[in-house]
Amino acid sequence: MNLDTGLGWAAIAVLPLLIVIGVAGSRYAGLRHDKGIVTAALRAVLQLAAVGLVVGFALQHTLGAIAFVLLMFGVASFTSTRRLHETAVVPRQWLYCGTAIGLGALTVLLLLILPGVVPRNPATILPMGGIIVGGTMTATTLAGRRVLSEYGTQFGQYEAGLSIGLLPRDAFKLVVGPVAGDALLPALDQTRTVGLVSLPGAFVGMVLGGASPAAAAALQLVVLIGLIAAETIAILTITELLSRARLPDGRTVSS
């Protein structure tokens, strides 16, 4: 039995057990994500199978890699929009999420790829794009949900800010700013503990591919700091856009 076959059968045997553990833990703790865990696992299987059919082409052609990153961006925007919609319905929510994800990811990817900080080839553009877009999606979702939730529960503080002469946008950001910043904690913790708690994929992949540990560490550092920069831009953007939006109770936060 070769290695690929062995890993395949092992995954088939273990994956259902891992799903059962996740569902059981969710049910026992009252997390209300029982169905979501199963759905996410099934979607991951189908999506990875589909991606396997086209990723070979994307890795051979620069335009194919760019097109695939754009597809990732579209799916990420849709996913964040749906998650924010679960918290509150805001007009043009899809535009806000897309702008936050796109601005954060595009800024960092251009800074990394155009000057040649990372190789300008499909094999780099595709995984780098996926990492950065995925990070900005998570940050946008977490920040947006926390901002909308905090605004709904702390409206009195918002009105207090207005009463002392703050502009509506400033009062809004004064109330929601601290909780929006929580969306950056996963990226910060990942960077603080890299090499001690986890060995990220880019580092391990380069070392296994024959690169020196120093070169692998340099690339991984670029990825981690790039994620922090991209997610910071995304959090800033979604908070700024929501500060100008008509929020769920009909109140408009604008200057």
Brief sketch in words of this structure:
By secondary structure, the chain is mostly helical. The chain folds into 2 domains: 52 residues, no CATH class; 191 residues, Multidrug efflux transporter AcrB transmembrane fold.
Summarize the helices and strands and which ones pair or pack.
Elements: H1 3-29, H2 34-58, H3 62-87, H4 93-113, H5 122-153, H6 155-163, H7 168-180, H8 185-192, H9 201-208, H10 213-243
- Based on CA atoms alone, the radius of gyration comes out at 21 Å
| Overall geometric form | globular
User: What share of the residues lie within helices?
Assistant: over 70%
CATH topology of the largest domain: Multidrug efflux transporter AcrB transmembrane fold
**What is the CATH architecture assignment of the largest domain?**
Up-down Bundle
Which structural class do the helices and strands define? mainly alpha
Straight-line distance between termini = 67 Å
Instruction: Give, in order, the helices and strands.
Output: HHHHHHHHHH
Number of domains as seen in the coordinates: 2
The number of helices is 10
Largest sheet: none
Kindly estimate the percentage of residues that lie in beta strands according to DSSP. under 5%
- How many strands? 0
Mean pLDDT figure: 81
CATH class division of the largest domain? Mainly Alpha
Enumerate the spans where pLDDT stays under 50 for 5 or more consecutive residues.
none
